[in-house]
Fold these 3 entries.
Entry 1:
Amino acid sequence: MKYEPLNAPAPSPLFQPTVTARRAAAMILRYTYLMRTSWPRIIELAYWPTVQMIMWGFMTQFLANQTSYVAQAFGVLLSAVLLWDVLFRGQLGVSLSFFEEMWSRNLGHLFVSPLRPGELVCAITVMSFIRTLIGIVPASLLAIWFFGFSVYELGLSLVVFFLSLLMFGWAVGLMVSGMVLRLGLGAESLAWACIFALLPVSGVYYPIEVLPEWLLPVAHAIPSSHVFEGMRAILQDGVVPYGLMANALLLNLVYLAIGVGIFLFAFHVARKRGLLLQVGE
């Protein structure tokens, strides 16, 4: 064992890694244990995506006999429901994991340890990925059983769509978490308000061309609209929209950088003002 002399200078912080995989993995393990010991949490993750899939599946069956739009591409609404839930679950997975630390007033305990904010960000995004899979995979498999439609027919494009929506959900979740850390738990309703504000301009159930002219620039500026337009291009026209996929991924990198920046800035301000120990309304 190597011993350092007592008067050895402390290592410069410039050469210390911002994220240590070991500490991030410890946080992931902590959240996994928390989820494993609470079966209602696991059921809740899969419950709402399944209920929505069944409701929209029956609606699709009805509309398939009434409108040519659904008849031409039977799974267009079911795919939209499942992909929208990826975005919704991805955002909630980040926000709720962070809120649970605030609700239990555990932030102060976590950050008296060597844990860094970047490591917490890594942990809650990985948990968001796991939560989203738990919610979406059972619903997608039940769609095959109930309605004979498989979202996996989108092929490798589905992987790109999934990752794009998940990354955008992480970005929104980190922005919301940063704002709640700065403003207090009285602002936690932002977790639901922010994501549903994006629903009309994302073109989830309809092409974005139906939006008013003044809203089109907003729709083009968010990754989710490119994903849903791409999904419809595959299901209706059989064309793989590489341009839309690239646009979504590039926009996601921008939004994710903004989300991480807002969260880290809010954490820095909260630590300076002692808010980590005074979390409240």
Note: The chain has one domain: 19-277.
Entry 2:
Amino acid sequence: MVIFLSSLLCAALIVLLTTALKTRRIARELQDAVRRNRCMLVNEPTSMLKRLGFDGLIKETNGLIVRYRGYADVESGLSNQLEALLGSIQEAVIIFNDQHVIEFVNDSAQRLFQRTRALKGARVETALRSTSLLEVLKAYREDHNPKRQEVSVERLGEVLWFEVSCVAVCGVSGQGTESTLLVLHDITRLKGLEEVRRDFVANVSHELRTPLTIIKGFAETLVEDHATLPEETRARFLDKIVNNAQRLHLLVEDLLVLSRLESNPERIQTSMQSLQQLLEEMLEPYKSRLNAQEQSIKLDFDERVGEFAFDRFRIQQVFDNLIENAFRYAPDFTLLTVSARYDELKNKVLCTVTDDGPGIPQKDIPHIFERFYRVDKGRSRESGGTGLGLSIIKHIVQQHGGSVSVESEAGQGAKFYFSLPYKQSQAEESSSPAG
């Protein structure tokens, strides 16, 4: 009897031990399935699982895993769509946490601020060197009102301007956290255009004020002191008024030309023309203005240049301005050379106007084609220049697809270059002028 009870106890212990081991193994497999986010595959008989009480738990756990994976896929899809959306916009987008550590940047921000090193994980203060931006973020942190403000950011020695806006969003790192979405719209070009506009308005105001002041002053003197002014003085005053009125007229005309060139590039009307014929016709009137014994004009034309497409009126305007500049600013020149050469490598016609006058100082050459820039401001105004001629030339040539430049040294004369694309007719394209 004792032996039977002992055997029965041993069998019961073995069953309990086996059940405990199976229970532990099933619990471990269930835990591993939850950790790996995969449904548990059960190798044990259903009857045993029911006896151990795992059948319902495994079924519910697998259901939870399936539902969780569905939610995770939806969330991942939405996250990918949001990331793709933010990544595709042109504005720079940055998301950072309350420690100012960047959690997300789109491609525009990465290209704009750091092309060689990833911005994600860096601090905002390190990535964007901007005191004004930090002040905006500080103000937002204090009142949490959405901000929209212009800030400047230093990058590689240059200053960029942005219109920034920031707003709180759900944290990227996890539930219950809050991050800040920062959007930066690049307005650097607009700021530059605004500065150009201010400078242009200031320059125009200054240029108009001087002749208007002179006209007003002399006119008032003529009215008030007409009876006492000698006839010779009245004639001199009237001459001053006429000269400054003419100066105003030229300035307004040049401003209108420049405005039309900038706003309506399609106004360039090209057609097949002979540049040689144009130069020969337009140079003839200038010869009468020469001092016959001391001055001469020379035309140096490359015979390989046949007819090609350009706007006759505008290109004549270019040559006229350059030649007039020589008469105005280098009146004592002895030789004025106008040339046109064919550049075979670039398939362009290279035109030059060269004088042997006083030349242009090196410090002025980089600015010579800017609007209202004058090398000798006093002398330019006395000679009737508006300060817009070379700027007009630059616009005309660029709208033809060419470029302008100048070479000069003080006391060594000046050489103005401009190039024009050599657009031939269909018949001429079969054989180049060099052939």
Note: Residues 89-186 form a domain with the Beta-Lactamase fold (CATH 3.30.450.20).
Entry 3:
Amino acid sequence: MTISRRVFVKSSGLALVSLGLEPLFLGRAVFGSYRPLPSLTGSDRPVLVCLFQRGAVDGLNMIVPHGDPLYYEERPRIAVPQETVVDLDGHFGLHPSLAPLKELWDNKSLAAIHAVGSPDSTRSHFDAQDYMETGTPGVKSTGDGWVNRYCSHDREHAPPGTPFRAVAFGPQLPRILAGSAPSLAIDDLQAFGLRVPQEGARDKLTRAFEELYEGEGTGLLASSSREGFDAIQMLKRADPSQYRPAAGVDYPQGRLGRTLLQIAQLIKSDVGLEIAFADCSGWDTHVNQGSNEGQLAARLRELGLALSAFSRDLGDRMSRVVVLTMSEFGRTIRENGNSGTDHGHATAMLVMGGPVNGGRVLGRWPGLSVEQRFEGRDVAVTTDFRDLFGEVLARHLGAGDLSPIFPGFAPDPQRFLGAIKSL
């Protein structure tokens, strides 16, 4: 295998786990010449956790407009029965699978945003996901993600001396973290650095990395390689395999529960985490979507249990953590002939955490009548997702100028929804 500088520069970050091999052997080849690692000390820095519900979640069955008769008229088979909805404000309610989140709603640390989405009208998953991750709806040429641009342009907020400022949980770096600022991709924190390859592979890769990093490092290569090497040493010291959640906290089985457990672990380890990103897929419900039970209900149950466990696991540390859910678009108002829903426009998103102005459904609700719909079939977008993301960056992370983070668009504080308490 030939490892070129071009490959590493293009990746915009060092996702060592993608090699599928144990990276700890790199220590004897390169660790000695790099800067000392910071100590694992406490921090009160804010943390943002982004969860991408890939596949386009049905916002109408997640945050149910049970007070609108049109919802039930248009969905005779898949509408959530009114008697099972977890009521929030008399008009909207949680899907019953999200009942574990009601406590967070009641203590004002959970809010929902309805009719939020992209101004672009595409119903292509791939295009809409790219637009949401790059923060440039309708522009396919953008190569970096809005989270990476935040990390690049707001360097004064970067935790000093840590490779863990921005971490994605998955086998590769997502578009949202692609760019010039260093970031990490970790497939499984508790397995990171624990697998040992055969001695032949160990020696071959050692020589490859020695050759790759000989001479003067330049640009992103030097920066991201250093971040990766430091991350390995810090994980060794944090000893992720020994982590136990807080007493009485059980994360649900499955990837989402495991991922949120590991994000909680990084936060508790005080390694300088500022932004964590994770995918949770399975939301493309064209067929047999179900109502209070079924396919969608199962996915929402995992989400509700995982978010509740995460909040209880962090305890007082949630005072500096915001969790933001996002999805590329919503689903049609009317159910289809297969007891499912097709690709729509606006959806619903959640914000959770101590800095959240919770206990409210935010955003302007456009209504479900035909004349209020987008193209006669979908929930209309009344909140541009960039205004919501911009508010979280400005009011939670303290971002200054948002214009370089969302090029061609100026998130306006006058349009902020009040989802986040002012700094």
Note: Confidence is low (pLDDT under 50) at residues 1-41, 193-199, 205-223.
